[in-house]
Every structure is written in structure tokens, then in C-alpha cells.
Amino acid sequence: MIDGVVGDRIDYANTRLGKRVYLNPYVEYMLGRHLTLGLDYTFERLSVDGGRLYTANIGQLRAVYSLNRRTLLRTILQYVDYDRNPDMYTFEVDSESRSLFSQVLFSYKINPRTVLFLGYSDNHYGDQDIGLTQSDRTFFAKIGYAWVL
């Protein structure tokens, strides 16, 4: 499937009108009864009087493996790449920035109202001077319960 928009867009950061090109192709595919893969890509370019303001490329890969009705494992990888024209901004910006996000989530439904989540996520950031460098790492656990009122 593909989604797209071409037309006017406000540059909120610099308070002016611009022209936007936005494309978002994505696909989701089930491999058997247990595995679902999703691939999503977003391209956006905003131009204002005088030239291109920025170009954004965002890609996301998602995999969900359902072991059974109660248990699933989900993995997400997302890469973001911004290419900006600093001369077109009214304030200082980096000409390039990149980030990589990853997350692994285990989910177990204890009963119809209670779910246990265990997971790991991390972030990497970079710019025109520094390559992707890990900025944080998180291990988490959560129990969700639906109260009946």
C-alpha cells in the first residue's frame, strides 16, 4: 500500500508557507499463522522560497511472532535520517541527524484482564560530525490490569 501528499505545508519552526512532498509505502505480510512482518518507509521533503528546507527518510521494520493466544514476541527497528539546509532556517540547526531505535517486547496474557510485558530498547544518535552512537539502553517490566467498575 502507498500513501502520499503533494501540496502546501506550513513550516512551523520558521513560520512560513512551504511545499511538501510526502510518500509512505508500507507492506505487511503474514508468514504462516504465527509470524507477521511489516515494512514501512516514509519520505518527506519540505521546500520554501529559496530552496529545500529539509528531507526526511524514516524506515521501520516490525516483526511479531505469536507463540500462542497468550504469548507474543515483537521486535521493532526504526531508522531516521534528516538532511537539513541550515541556511534556510531562522535559527541554528545541524545539517544532518540520524537515529536508530530498537525494541524487543515479550508479552504474556496471564488472564483476560492481566498482561505481563518484559522488554528491552535502545537508541543511537548521530549527526554530521559523529556517527551513530548509543545514547541509552532500557530494560523494562510492566503488568497491566483492567479494573472492572
Structure description:
- The chain has 149 residues and is an all-beta fold.
- It has one domain: Porin (Beta Barrel).
- It has no helices and 8 strands.
- It has an 8-stranded antiparallel β-sheet, with no helix packed on it.
- The protein is elongated and about 60 Å long.
Features:
mainly beta, 8 strands, 0% helix
Strand order across the biggest sheet? 1-2-3-4-5-6-7-8
Portion of residues in beta strands equals: over 45%
- The gyration radius over C-alpha positions equals 20 Å
Helix content: under 10%
Number of helical elements: 0
What is the CATH topology descriptor?
Porin
Written as H for each helix and E for each strand, in order along the chain, the element string is EEEEEEEE
Total number of strands? 8
Looking at CATH, the homologous superfamily is Porin
Largest sheet data: 8 strands, antiparallel
Structural class by SSE content? mainly beta
* CATH A-level architecture: Beta Barrel
Number of separate domains: 1
> Which CATH class?
Mainly Beta
Anisotropy-based shape? elongated
- Amino-to-carboxy terminus distance: 41 Å
Average pLDDT, rounded to a whole number, is 94
Q: Are there runs of 5+ residues with pLDDT below 50, and where?
A: none
